[in-house]
């Protein structure tokens, strides 16, 4: 798929281009709004990733212009302006989603994938087939006669292009435009070479007929199979289906390409290390700008042009340092940016504050890089977790699982030892068992004490017991979650991580309706550690009664259920003015275009395919709740 990246920070452009390319996206970059507008009007893009503060035409204005001209492609905003008014302004201008700088690379990729999926939501995502060849656009796996083919990214994109457009002839220049990004300048012979390579690999897999047909003087197209020629009606139906899917491409890197996930991860880390070095080398130039600005602030003669230049450099550092795994540097740069605001800059003491943050920035560059995991998880630094449990085997398993995960583990074998550890150095999170074999005191007493004296420390209870009375008491005392000890250690750590990372949206009430009780239990386990108040229902007949009792902030419905389907329940909700704006998310194992169409006609806001991918589900829920909260805040400010 083809992405237009609009960003004037060369460090960010370099990093994002290489990260997106490693995920098999073709990236064009523009450094200002006017150039981006020309590119968007000239070429077909599947997505625009748009920085808000860019020269000539700012991101918000560019977004408005694109939407007013009828542009429907998804737009993802990148912004270091995290105030509600700025975010609301971006959404109201037509943006589909936003990411606040400094952002996490995995979150950015996840949001891009979600937007690209949403853009093709009305179309099916069926397996593409030709003779014994099968291409799965969702997993991007390519097989011939059940044998996996290892294709390069360009070969994969060529194959999918022809399969999605079986009756269309592509010239070599048209293929260059579709498959290669604007930053690449290959000759048309490159197309011939890659098609030759694709043909060679298909032949090596056992294909006896050339899949790609050369149309002399015109270009290339997918060769018709004999049954298509014998059955014109089937051929027409195939062509119509392909035409409806013509705008789609693979959304993620193909397993059949040269890089697997771990190799891609290492490649990104190498890129990040290289860019960190370049940023450090260029940092002295930025320091000179800040030094000139602070010198003029001290004399009260700061020129407007120099202030704007220094503030722009600080703004770029906010995103660059955070994305490169230097969150403390990013925060220092953000403070400098705020101090350079026109209304703040000449206040007494500001020059000294800027110098202090600048000194911190210099120290950041002199330190060794922070853990590589900062680039791929939401954890900015190593976190301390206190495990209160006398089960030594369980604790050791958690320690092993925590190795390299960003957690520093400390173990207390009794409530008294836990009190001492908390007093000496309060941890970031506590994992508390409810029973101890050698002391009479139970974990409930300690939980009540911690919640009273250290309410800012999240406490996750984990226990081998599964009594409802324990769960109710733990919830009443304000624990952040309840986990059963049978859960794998890695999942326990993940749940603690999620509690530490939860956002303001995480106090929302979520109601889930599905006839699969096992799925409901799994969803509850996924959502509760984020702080959601989760209500599950496996009897659709009781839906309305529970809905009016719970008054949820978000509703999750399964499509197919006995008695009443999710689509019927959605229609009933949308027919009631009290619930007409309630966010509704569907769960479905169906990707057929007709089912998807029915969901959205009934009033769905979004949907998630089964089997559920936890990060995607959480991202979609948070995204939907954030939008509702922003609109509420906007409404309040306009009263």
Query: What do the pLDDT scores average to?
Result: 77
- How large is the count of helical segments? 24
Our measurement of the CA-to-CA distance between the termini, rounded to an integer number of angstroms, reads: 43 Å
Low-confidence runs (pLDDT<50, min 5 residues)? 121-125, 227-259, 369-381
Could you estimate the helical fraction of the residues in percent?
A: 40-55%
Tell me the number of strands.
21
Assembly type of the chains comes to: single chain
General form: globular
Report Rg: 27 Å
Q: Helices and strands: which structural class?
A: alpha/beta
Major sheet description: 5 strands, parallel
How much strand content do the residues show? 5-15%
Strand order of the largest sheet: 2-1-3-4-5
Describe the 3D structure.
With 639 residues, this protein is of the alpha/beta class. Helix content is 50%, strand content 15%. It is built from 24 helices and 21 strands. It has a five-stranded parallel β-sheet with strand order 2-1-3-4-5, sandwiched between helices.
């Amino acid at each position: 798929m083809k992405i237009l990246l609009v960003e004037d920070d060369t460090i960010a452009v370099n990093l994002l281009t290489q990260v997106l390319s490693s995920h098999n996206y073709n990236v064009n970059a523009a450094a200002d709004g006017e150039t981006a507008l020309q590119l968007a009007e000239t070429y077909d893009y599947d997505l625009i990733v748009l920085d808000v503060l860019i020269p000539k035409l700012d991101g918000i204005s560019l977004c408005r212009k694109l939407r007013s001209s009828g542009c429907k492609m998804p737009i993802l905003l990148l912004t270091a302006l995290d105030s509600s008014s700025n975010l609301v302004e971006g959404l109201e201008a037509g943006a589909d989603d936003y990411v606040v700088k400094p952002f996490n690379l995995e979150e950015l990729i996840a949001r891009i994938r979600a937007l690209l999926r949403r853009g093709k939501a009305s179309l099916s995502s069926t397996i593409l087939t030709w003779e014994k060849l099968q291409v799965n656009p969702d997993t991007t796996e390519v097989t011939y006669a059940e044998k996996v083919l290892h294709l390069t990214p360009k070969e994969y994109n060529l194959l999918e292009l022809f399969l999605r457009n079986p009756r269309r002839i592509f010239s070599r220049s048209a293929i260059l435009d579709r498959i290669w990004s604007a930053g690449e300048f290959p000759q048309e012979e490159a197309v011939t070479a890659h098609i030759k390579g694709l043909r060679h690999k298909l032949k090596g897999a056992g294909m006896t007929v050339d899949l790609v047909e050369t149309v002399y003087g015109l270009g290339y197209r997918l060769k018709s199979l004999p049954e298509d020629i014998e059955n014109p009606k089937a051929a027409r139906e195939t062509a119509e289906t392909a035409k409806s899917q013509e705008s789609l491409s693979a959304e993620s890197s193909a397993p059949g390409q040269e890089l697997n996930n771990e190799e891609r991860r290492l490649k990104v880390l190498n890129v990040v290390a290289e860019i960190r070095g370049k940023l450090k080398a260029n940092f002295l130039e930025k320091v000179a700008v800040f030094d000139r600005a602070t010198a003029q602030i001290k004399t009260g003669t700061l020129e407007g042009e120099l202030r704007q230049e220094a503030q722009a450099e600080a703004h770029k550092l906010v995103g660059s340092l955070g994305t490169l795994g230097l969150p403390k540097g990013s925060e220092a740069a953000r403070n400098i940016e705020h101090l350079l605001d026109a209304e703040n800059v000449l206040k007494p003491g500001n020059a000294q504050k800027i110098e202090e943050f600048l000194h911190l920035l210099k120290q950041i560059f002199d330190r060794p890089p922070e853990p590589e995991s900062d680039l791929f998880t939401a954890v900015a630094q190593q976190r301390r977790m206190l495990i209160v449990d006398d089960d030594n085997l369980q604790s050791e398993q958690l320690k092993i699982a925590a190795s390299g995960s960003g957690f520093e583990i400390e173990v207390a074998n009794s409530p008294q030892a836990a009190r001492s550890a908390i007093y000496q150095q309060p941890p970031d999170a506590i994992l508390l068992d409810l029973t101890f074999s050698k002391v009479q005191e139970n974990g409930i007493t300690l939980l009540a004490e911690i919640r009273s004296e250290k309410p800012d420390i999240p406490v996750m209870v984990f226990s081998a017991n599964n009594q409802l009375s324990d769960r109710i008491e733990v919830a009443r005392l304000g624990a952040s979650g309840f986990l059963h000890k049978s859960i794998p250690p890695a999942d326990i750590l993940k749940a603690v991580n999620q509690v530490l990372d939860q956002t303001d949206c995480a106090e929302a009430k979520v109601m889930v309706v599905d006839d699969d009780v096992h799925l409901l239990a799994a969803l509850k386990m996924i959502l509760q550690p984020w702080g959601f108040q989760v209500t599950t229902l496996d009897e659709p007949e009781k839906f309305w009664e529970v809905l009016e009792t719970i008054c949820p902030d978000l509703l999750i419905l399964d499509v197919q259920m006995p008695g009443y389907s999710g689509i019927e329940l959605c229609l009933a909700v949308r027919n009631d003015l009290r619930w007409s704006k309630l966010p509704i998310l569907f769960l479905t194992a169906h990707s057929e275009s007709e089912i998807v169409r029915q969901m959205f006609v009934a009033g769905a806001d979004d949907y998630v395919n089964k089997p559920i991918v936890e990060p995607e589900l959480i991202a979609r829920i948070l995204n939907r709740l954030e939008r509702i909260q922003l609109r509420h805040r906007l409404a309040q400010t306009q009263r």
